[in-house]
Amino acid sequence: xxxxxxxxxxxxxxxxxxxxxxxxxxxxxxxxxxxxxxxxxxxxxxxxxxxxxxxxxxxxxxxxxxxxxxxxxxxxxxxxxxxxxxxxxxxxxxxxxxxxxxxxxxxxxxxxxxxxxxxxxxxxxxxxxxxxxxxxxxxxxxxxxxxxxxxxxxxxxxxxxxxxxxxxxxxxxxxxxxxxxxxxxxxxxxxxxxxxxxxxxxxxxxxxxxxxxxxxxxxxxxxxxxxxxxxxxxxxxxxxxxxxxxxxxxxxxxxxxxxxxxxxxxxxxxxxxxxxxxxxxxxxxxxxxxxxxxxxxxxxxxxxxxxxxxxxxxxxxxxxxxxxxxxxxxxxxxxxxxxxxxxxxxxxxxxxxxxxxxxxxxxxxxxxxxxxxxxxxxxxxxxxxxxxxxxxxxxxxxxxxxxxxx
Length: 406
Description:
Helix content: 25-40%
Order of helices and strands: EEHHHEEEHHEHEEHEEHEHHHEH
Structural class: alpha/beta
Strand content: 15-25%
Number of strands: 12
Number of helices: 12
Low-confidence stretches: none
Strand order of the largest sheet: 3-4-6-5-9-12-10-11
Distance between the termini: 43 Å
């Protein structure tokens, strides 16, 4: 039955599963439980939120009121008008057009650090997937060859906190360059390749039609969408995904069939010096290391475990938030996933033979917080989330650049 549900999380310590039901699915499930004589209760099954639309509507109202307050405040601001107000940016979530303006503003403000790339490829619906290069440039504006770090967000459309975290990290680095010795050293010796919004079509759809939309917007006849994080060209279709177009984990017809995934793979392969890659998702507070397609330990399990455990430790030290560090397969099997592709043989070959430290980080909230919507993180948590991840990423970047995988 789980193959036909939108599974949000699965407990590692028990058989607890949190899943989203449509009205029809829930009516069928409830009738089946009634026939079997299994009443609703904590020991067997329980409804943690009967009206998810109410939660989404409340979140939308919160975002609207915050945006209205900030707009009214800016109307009385006598400062010269910029694309975005960086002082209030992280008090709310933003549409993809606004996120693009955010990065264009940073490019204007920090030309010595940022190179804006208008398009690395197009989505199913024809939108340009933009990216940036972030590093301290030479005096003539050129970029010398340095080890590279890859960050990407919003592969799954509904995971808004993944996008805000990538934005926070970018601003954290540029705003502290020249003022913070560690950040200055990192940008002097490292180049960041950042794709802020991978799934532009799906993300736009979460704002306009369905806040809980996960996939891209590929038309599959009666159904829409491919799960991009099951479409990468690494052990594609070997389990942990679905062949049914209506499934939330529908993998698509073939590896890298989706233009979003193909664009990412091609752009990654153009870099040649990547030593670390992070795919930001939410939720469950997990640091997932290779691999998701097999129970056999990855060749660099020891190195990945050390880094993952250290990230968890640093995050906890900021606000006390507890993240679990574990192999992806310990959560559940996945194939065709981005983080496995980054670590896998095809990406390594494209990357001049350099194997990459690769992680999926599942951000706030915890999967143990029942009720409401796990994917709907309140805007007031954007900054504390960014703060704890920024501290961990300072370690991650410094360590993997100095200790590349052999």
